[in-house]
Design a protein that fits this description.
The chain has 22 helices and 8 strands. By secondary structure, the chain is mainly alpha-helical. The strands form 3 sheets. The protein has a 3-stranded mixed β-sheet.
Length: 472
């Protein structure tokens, strides 16, 4: 996880102001720790987030700290510590029907109000609280052009409120690193689909900073191994670009030059999945694969091919690449694509069509002790080729209790396959549109019905044994 520390910008302040910021931080920490006390699925908005935003200023300014005067630095950093304090919910808030929407849309206003309300506890006089609250509020939605270009504070010490508002808004948007969403929190909360994607994309971001090749570019580096995640991260980059565009004129007028925001994603594992998908529809040459994946860096595609060849997932013969057909490789490829938006494309591919019958027959015989006849294979293969969950059960949950010797074990497999298929159909009803699949289900159902008596006999026997054990 990214380590958050005090900024270099803070170190340039006079000792008195550094001490004041530390006091503000200590006072605000327990309150900011409650920013998710009502909206528990939100990513972190604690004091660590505030310090993360503060660190971003080091990248925005890149050593040019003298662009800001002493008071501007202090007001900016004080506002940064407190900018999300309006997100803390109260007991009364729980009773509001649209509280989540209200917080999303208005928390910047609440932050300004709370800074004014608690100014004595933070050690601000009225003028300081007004300025700091105004800068904190500017981290979202406020019309920056309506803010003061220069606002006199004290004697001969003007504050560029518009510039500070632009900086906090941009820096807040740029703080997207993995400290915003600790994995352990996501695991415990198990957030909904939208929140989960926000958590996931933060967890994949390794860092943000100026490019060493071109310092005018700010890069966002992330590890990407899923198509939906890639799109979500690109959406995040677009949001940052939009925010940058809204503040760039103000930054440039104050000699802060940032030309663009550039995604720098490590997509090697994702490209491996794309190569596997390409080959699942038939053998291809290296040039064909490169042409079909032209949107990817050719070096990354070449590396993916080499890795998959070395690990024996794919093989090359006469310049043509193809997928290995053994059950281990079949399972490996399915597991790589399982849970992605392309898992259906894979289980309906030519590779699965050509190999599922032999794999199903092998699993049925070696795990469930049953030799499937051709008709039985065809019925069950139809379901497997339409259900990622049924395929997952076949490949990854191959277990049957040894005491099931009196029951035809095929029924255990059938119930599992049907259960997986029905779960997928519930989510995606289109999977049930094929009339042949419905006939296959009916055939499997008839087999289960005919042999149900054996299952009832075993359950009766189990109950008798349990009763006898209790007597003993």
């Amino acid at each position: 996880m990214v380590k958050i520390k005090k900024s270099e910008l803070r170190k340039t302040l006079a000792q008195e102001n550094i001490f004041r910021l530390e006091q503000i931080e200590r006072t605000a920490t327990p309150l900011l720790a409650r920013t998710t006390n009502v909206l528990i699925e939100y990513t972190e908005h604690t004091v660590e987030h505030s310090l993360g935003v503060e660190q971003i200023y080091d990248e925005i300014l890149k050593g040019k700290f003298d662009i800001l005067n002493e008071n501007e630095k202090f007001f900016l950093l004080a506002a940064t510590i407190l900018h999300d304090i309006g997100m803390v919910g109260t007991k009364v808030d729980l009773e509001l029907p649209d509280y989540e929407k209200i917080v999303r849309e208005q928390h910047h206003i609440f932050s300004r109000q709370r800074i004014l309300q608690l100014r004595h506890q933070f050690g601000f006089d009225q003028a300081e609280a007004n300025l700091i609250g105004k800068i904190a509020e500017a981290h979202r939605k406020v019309n920056l052009e309506g803010m003061e270009e220069s606002y006199q504070y004290g004697i001969g010490s003007p504050i560029r409120v518009k510039l500070l508002g632009a900086m906090i808004r941009f820096a807040d948007e740029l703080h997207v690193t993995n400290d915003r969403a600790p994995e352990i929190v996501s695991e415990v909360l198990n957030p909904g689909k939208v929140s989960k994607m926000h958590h996931s994309r933060h967890q994949k971001v390794a860092g943000v900073g100026r490019s060493r090749i071109n310092p005018a570019i700010i890069e966002i580096s992330a590890f990407v191994d899923d198509w939906d995640l890639e799109e979500s991260l690109m959406e995040m980059v677009r949001e940052i670009e939009k925010k940058h565009k809204s503040v760039n004129k103000i930054l440039e007028e104050n000699e802060i030059i940032i030309a663009e925001i550039s995604p720098n994603f490590d997509v090697e594992y994702l490209v491996q999945k794309e190569v596997l998908l390409e080959l699942s529809n038939g053998e291809k040459s290296r040039d064909e694969i490169l042409a079909n994946l032209e949107a990817r860096n050719p070096i990354t595609v070449e590396q993916a091919l080499d890795t998959l060849s070395i690990t024996n997932i794919i093989e090359e013969s006469k310049g043509q690449y193809s997928l290995n057909k053994d059950q281990k490789t079949f399972r490996y490829i399915f597991n790589k694509l399982s849970g992605t938006k392309n898992d259906i494309n894979f289980i309906r591919s030519k590779y699965v069509e050509e190999n599922i019958d032999s794999i199903l027959t092998d699993v049925a015989l070696n795990i469930y002790g049953y030799q499937l006849n051709p008709g039985e294979v065809e019925d069950r293969a139809l379901l497997l080729k339409s259900s990622p969950q049924a395929m997952d059960i076949l490949l990854n949950k191959q277990s049957v209790h040894t005491d099931f010797g009196h029951l035809q074990r095929l029924q255990v497999l059938d119930v599992s396959i049907l259960g997986g298929y029905l779960q997928d159909v519930t989510i995606n009803p289109k999977l049930a549109e094929d009339g042949e699949i419905l006939l296959a289900i009916q055939s499997i159902e008839n087999d289960l019905h005919k042999n149900l008596g054996s299952l009832l006999h075993i359950l009766k026997h189990v109950n008798q044994v349990e009763a006898e054990e209790k007597k003993k």
